[in-house]
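Need the bound structure for flavin-adenine dinucleotide, inputs here:
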Amino acid sequence: MDGSASGKNVVIVGSSFAGLSAALEVRKRLDPVHTVTVLDPRPDFTFIPSLIWVPFGLRDAKDVTFPLAPLYERKGIRFVNEAAASFDLEGRKVITTSGQEIPYDRMMLGTGPRLAFERIPGLGPGDGYTTSVCNLEHALSAREEWDRFLEDPGPVVVGTAQGGSCFGASYEFLFNVAHRVRKAGLADEVPIKFVSAEPFLGHFGLGGVGNSGEMVEKFFDKLNIEGITNNVIERVEPDTMYLEGGRELPFKFSMIVPPFSGVDAIKETEGLANPMGFVPVDDEYRHPDIPEVFAAGVDIAIAPPGETPVPAGVPKTGHMSEKMAEAAAQNIAADIQGGDRHKLALADLAAVCVLDAGNSGVIFKAEHVLGDGGTTHVMAGPQAHWAKLAFERYFISSRKRGITAF
Ligand SMILES: Cc1cc2nc3c(=O)[nH]c(=O)nc-3n(C[C@H](O)[C@H](O)[C@H](O)COP(=O)(O)OP(=O)(O)OC[C@H]3O[C@@H](n4cnc5c(N)ncnc54)[C@H](O)[C@@H]3O)c2cc1C
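Answer from helper R.:
Posting the output first, comments after.
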């Protein structure tokens, strides 16, 4: 405990799954004398899991976002709608893009990943030739590509690049593409390929979850999708993807989850992160060398549970991100005004994941995502699709009102 009765400053950097949960939780726990400030250049929260539906016109921006400022105002949290440009760790200050200096006594980083498209020539929207559903702008531009594709259909390539970690998202998008292609009556003229850094289908960067390998294989067989694992994408040119080993995949539409790294402001601050820009944390989600700094969500460093021939990162789901943030917030509050600490080893993180397939899907539940996996349940069927729809409604309406409990 810091001991002083004077107000302390808690700063949360990033306001998505990790940052929003941490801000609400720490505000709930701290006396009003202490201030909580959140920074994010995005004015709105985006429910990223629904972005897989945006390219098909099934969701618009307004369906999957809500504004952050009114929520934070109601909760007594200061919201700075700017990015952290750099960190002065010695002076305990965050410097924003406009040059504001925001002092902190405790800071939690929840900045998510940097989407490192530039590591593979031709990858990504903007300067490249593939689409992405990793953020709202990308998903909206993928919709334009999808509409063009429907006018001039041909082969499709979906997947996750080497160094990526969000495998579930690319599987979900793949199955949704297959569903939309069938609905459009194009199944015979649209061959679909899936490229992945995973050593086997359904590995997910975790060595598999229960019988996920078998389950995913069944989906691929049924939908006539070719899976290419241990894959390295060398470069992408208009309409063709070049794989290491010489294979060329022609495409008319492609969505590839890119390699992930930490965001620049973190990566470039000496002593804050590993060489990839991910923040090391202990069981309290505290930086092992900088006690006043915490981190939660996709921006933390997690070693893969086993080596893979091609680098495949560990997925950090929304649920995991919220749980880490909740623990970090409790420990920040305990530092400032005492109370119980919350230790949550990475190996004890649980995950519930619904993998939508358009009109069906798979629900995965793992007691321990890392380590031995613990008890796992895998259930396939149309109920998975309905579960995802219901969860989307529950999540957006509860978070909009500042309710974070799962
Ligand atoms: C297409 C897709 C589908 C997915 N589906 C699921 C699913 O079904 N279930 C599930 O559990 N998970 C799913 N995930 C994963 C889930 O979205 C992530 O686990 C979650 O978004 C991680 O939250 P986060 O807060 O760590 O990071 P992010 O959600 O990446 O948010 C980071 C925030 O930090 C902000 N930020 C970045 N840099 C700065 C800076 N310098 N200063 C201030 N703010 C900054 C960003 O603007 C952003 O708001 C999916 C992911 C994708 C891409």
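Comments: The pocket of flavin-adenine dinucleotide is lined by residues 13-19, 39-42, 48-49, 51-52, 83-84, 110-113, 133-134, 166, 168-169, 263, 265, 297-298, 316-319, 321, 353-354 (CB under 6 Å). The chain has two domains: 9-114+262-345, 121-260.
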